[in-house]
Ribosyldihydronicotinamide dehydrogenase [quinone]
Amino acid sequence: MAGRKVLIVYAHQEPKSFNGSLKRVAVEELSKQGCSVTVSDLYAMQFEPRATRNDIVGCLHNSEEFDYGMETSEAYKRGGLSSDLIEEQKKVQEADLMIFQFPLYWFSMPAIMKGWMDRVLVQGFAHEFPNCYDSGLLKNKLALFSFTTGGSKEMYAKGSINGDIRYLMWPMQHGIMHFCGVKVLAPHICFAPKYVSEEKRKDMLIAWAQRLKTLWKEEPINCSPEWYFK
Amino acid sequence: MAGRKVLIVYAHQEPKSFNGSLKRVAVEELSKQGCSVTVSDLYAMQFEPRATRNDIVGCLHNSEEFDYGMETSEAYKRGGLSSDLIEEQKKVQEADLMIFQFPLYWFSMPAIMKGWMDRVLVQGFAHEFPNCYDSGLLKNKLALFSFTTGGSKEMYAKGSINGDIRYLMWPMQHGIMHFCGVKVLAPHICFAPKYVSEEKRKDMLIAWAQRLKTLWKEEPINCSPEWYFK
C-alpha cells in the first residue's frame, strides 16, 4: 500500500462534524500506511457546482447554441478547461483510489459533490464512447463511497419504506464510477450517527480505521443490476 | 385545469436547446389551458446549489458546530431563511404541479437542480417526521420529471448496460418527491434528441404538448420498490 495515491473528495461544511472525523481518520490511517493522500474539501474550496460557459477558457466551438458536454470535451482536447477543473482532473489522474465522503442528501450526494462529478468527469478525460463502463478511461482506479445517513439501518432495509440502500447507490456507483471504468469497493455507511451515543460514534470511527487497514486486499463489488436489485 | 398553478423548475444553460423547447412547449400549452405558470430558470437565476451558512439570516442556533439541516429547519420556523429560498418555497407552496425539466447528467439531475432540492425542501416546510412519505407536508401536489438523455431507449431497457431507466428515477421520485408527500406522475423522457432527425425532434415536442392536454386526468405512479424494480 505504501506509495499508493488516494484522493478524498469531501463534502461537509463543518470540520467538527462526524463526516469531518471520518475524513480525518482516513487521512491519518492511509498516511500511516505510507499512502500519499490528497483532500478536495469542496465547501472549503467553495467548489463551483454549476456547469456553465465559465468552464471553457477562450472561444466556444459553437457559440450559437451552447452545448456543455460538447464544449467541455472540445476544451479538454485543446487544454482549454478552467483551471479548477484541470486541477481536479490532475488529482483524479494520479489517484489509485478515490474516496467520496459526504452526508446523504435526498438519497444522493450533496449538490456540491454532484457538481464535482458533472464538471470534472469530462468526455475525453473520463470516458469517450465506446470507452465506457469496463473500458472507461479511468480504469485501474478504485472508488469508495463513504457516507452518513439520517435514517437508521432498519429504515434502509429491503422491504422497508426507504428501500434497500443499494437501490440509491445505483446512479453513483454504476452510473458514474462504473461508467468511467472505475472499480467500486463496497460502500462504507454510517447509519444515523446523529442519533447514537458518543460511544457508538467512536466505535464507528474505529471500524472505519480498521476497514482501511485491509482495504487494498478487498475485491470490487459486482456493479450489475443483479447485485443491486436482487 | 383553468386556474391550476404550475411551477416549472428548469435547468439548461441554452434557451435554444431541446430542453429549452420542451420548457417553452409546456409554458404555452399549460397557459392555453388557463393555468398560471411560473418558471424557475435556474441557470438564468444563477441559482446557488451549495448548502451553506449563507442560507441562514442572522445568528445560528448552534454556532459551535454547524449542522445545515438543523439550522435551516430552525431558520424556517423563525422566518430566517435567505430570500432566494423563501422565494422558491412560495412558488412551491402555491403550485398544484411541479415540472422538473433537465438533461440527465450522470443518471441524475444536474447539480444546480440537486441544489434546488437540497436547499428549498427544508425540514418543517416540506417534511417533518413523522410527516413524510404519504403524509409529507407537500401532499396534494403533483410532480413530473421531464428529461432528455444522451443514450438511446434501448440502452436504458431492462437487461441492457444502463439498466432499466426506472432504477435511476428511484432517488428523485421516491427519495425526494414521495418523501415530501408529493404524488408523482409518470416521467416524460425524450431519449437521445441530439442523435435523431429534426423531424423526430419536432414529433417529440408535439408528443409532449399532446400529453399535457390530458395531464390532469392522469393517475400518479405507484412509488414503491415493486414498481421500480419489478
The mean pLDDT of chain B is 97. Chain B has one domain: 5-54+91-229.
